[in-house]
Amino acid sequence: MTEYDAVVIGAGNGGLAAAAALAKGGAKTLLLERHNVPGGCATSFCRGRFEFEVALHQLSGLGTEAAPGPLRATLHGLDVLDKVEFVQMENMYRIALPGALDLTLPTTRDGVVRALAERFPAEEAAIRSFFDLVYDYFNQFIAIFFMRDPDVSREKYPLYFQYALKPAQEVLDEHFRDPLLKLALGAYWCYIGVPPRQLPFGDLAGILYAYIEFKPWHIKGGSQALSNALVDAFLRNGGEVRFNCAAAKITVADGRVAGVVTADGEAVATGCIIANASALTTFTELIDRKDCPAAPLETMSGMTVGPSVVCLYIGLDCPPEALGIREETNFLCTHADMERAYAQYRTLDEPPGMVLLTCFNISNPEASPPGTSQIAIVDLKYADPWLAIPPERYAREKYRYAEGLLAIAEAQYPGFRSHIEEIEVSTPLTHMRYLNHPGGAIYGFDQYAKDSRIFQPIKPALPGLFLAGAWAAEGGFQPTLMAGASTGRAALKTIRRK
Ligand SMILES: Cc1cc2nc3c(=O)[nH]c(=O)nc-3n(C[C@H](O)[C@H](O)[C@H](O)COP(=O)(O)OP(=O)(O)OC[C@H]3O[C@@H](n4cnc5c(N)ncnc54)[C@H](O)[C@@H]3O)c2cc1C
Question: Among residues 223, 230, 277, 227, which one has the least CA distance to residue 24?
Answer without folding.
Answer: 230
